């Protein structure tokens, strides 16, 4: 461990965490597709992705940041001082994890996939990558809005869940994904993650899906789940900083301030407007054997 650099540990975490996310998610979709809808529905697909995200963040968090998403990594670099030198390695590790996970799902479900879609067409493509249901333009704006919402709320969760409460962060981010999936899923499959889409898309192309890069009508689509989420992440992070972060109560004013003691009052330490006491205003509880407990009475 002493010879492993922090960045190396973080990259392993991003790889493994994203691997778990994609393995759960693609397998949940594959189960639905190969059973021709008999083993699952839209809810089970969404919950599969949610379970993968929660477990992936818990695992990756043991080694590093647990972004599992290049768009989130980009937002962290722009708004949260993540070193820019980490952005590309993070994105590559995340994409590699997604790629390997998709290969495993492809191998395990191969017989079922071939049985329901011998030609390896768009009928089973959504096991691995996303496609637009209402046109490319709608999908583009859908991905911007979905990823902006993801990052906006994520920043709030990171600011709120501190200390012991941080253990709840993966679960809360999972609920966030659940909401996005239920609210925005049908337009474009709620990729909201360049690694989640590109890694499996590459895996499916290498394993026989010749139409992996285009829509069923032949329109180039592979770039959209990369570009649009990155734009959305920058918008979501920027809106959080502009609307919430600059107006939120500073931490120093958001925590209880202890009542002043005679010593702190004498030293002028009680300058906080919430405790404008002077030494004469400080009341000390009576102690056994003492005639008086306040400076005012002791001076009489």
Q: Can I get a quick summary?
A:
The chain has helices at 6-34, 42-61, 70-79, 87-108, 110-116, 122-125, 136-160, 169-188, 194-206, 224-245, 262-266, 295-298. The chain has 300 residues and is an all-alpha fold.
General description of the model:
With 300 residues, the chain is mostly helical. It is 60% helix and 0% strand. It is built from twelve helices and no strands. The chain has helices at residues 6-34, 42-61, 70-79, 87-108, 110-116, 122-125, 136-160, 169-188, 194-206, 224-245, 262-266, 295-298. 41% of the residues are buried. The model is unreliable at 269-275 and 292-300 (pLDDT under 50).
List the helices and strands and how they pair.
Layout: H1 6-34, H2 42-61, H3 70-79, H4 87-108, H5 110-116, H6 122-125, H7 136-160, H8 169-188, H9 194-206, H10 224-245, H11 262-266, H12 295-298
Number of strands: 0
Oligomer: single chain
The end-to-end span amounts to 68 Å
Specify the structural class. Answer: mainly alpha
Q: Average pLDDT across residues? A: 88
Order of helices and strands: HHHHHHHHHHHH
What percent of residues adopt helix (DSSP H or I)? 55-70%
Strand content: under 5%
Q: Assign an overall shape.
A: globular
SS element count, helices: 12
Poorly predicted runs of 5 or more residues: 269-275, 292-300
Radius of gyration, in Å, reads 27 Å
Sheet with the most strands?
none
